[in-house]
Design brief:
With 253 residues, this protein is α/β, with parallel strands linked by helices. The chain contains 11 helices and 12 strands. An 8-stranded parallel beta barrel has the order 1-4-5-6-7-10-11-12, surrounded by 6 helices. The protein is globular and about 45 Å long.
Length: 253
Amino acid sequence: MITKRIIPCLDVRNGRVVKGVNFEGVQDVEDPVELARFYNESGADELVFYDITASFEGRALFNDILKEVARQIFIPLTVGGAINSVADFDRVLKCGADKVSVNTGAIKNPELITEAAKRYGNQCVVLSMDVKRVDGKFAVFAKGGRENTGIDALEWAERGEARGAGELVVNSIDTDGVKNGFDLEMLAAIGERVSIPIIASGGAGNAEDFVTLFQTLPKVDAGLAASIFHFRELSVKSLKQTLKENGIEVRII
C-alpha cells in the first residue's frame, strides 16, 4: 500500500505566513522560516510554499525568504508564485525547491508545463489548480483565486497530465478555510480523469476529515492543510497516529 502524505502549506504574503477563508479575509499567522522549521521537526512529509500575491502583483517570488526556508528543512519543498517561464523554474530550484508549482503561468502558457517537464523531469512539475463551482461546473480560477478563467477543471487536469505535469494540487475555493471537510465530489471527479498523484487541498477541520478523504478516495495521494496546523488545532504527529489506527499507511518518525 502506498504511504499517504501529510503536507502543511505556507501561504506567504509580504514575507509572512497568512491564512483566510474562501481565499478572502486573510490574516497574519507567523514567520515562514520558524513555521517551516516547526513542520520539519513535526514529521510532515513535505512542505508547500506559496507566494500568494506574486502573480496578482506582477512581481517575482521572494527569493531571500525562500532560501532561508529551504535551509531549515530536510523534507521535499514545493514552491509556487509567479512561475511564468522555465527561467522562473530554474531560479526557484536554485533557491532550494525540490518541486515547482505552476498555476496562473500555465493557464497563460500551457506549453510551460511541457518545457519544464522536458528540462527538469515530470516529478518536478506540479500543476496547482484553484477550483470553484460556477453554474454547476468546476471552473479554474487564476491569480490567487481572483479571476475566473472559464476553463473546465476536469479538462484542464487532463491537459496538465498530458503535457507532463507529475502531480496535481487541487485547491477547492468552495471549502478553503471552512473546516467542514475536503471537497470529495470535486476530487473524485478529477481523480476519474487523471492517473498522476493528487494532493487534496481546502477544507480540513480535524483528523477525521483526513480519514474520510483517504478511505473514500484511495486515489488521492496526499492531504494538504494550513490553518488547523498553523493554529495548533491538530498536530501532524497526532493526525498520523489517527490515520494509522484507521488502517491508513503513513510515515511516522
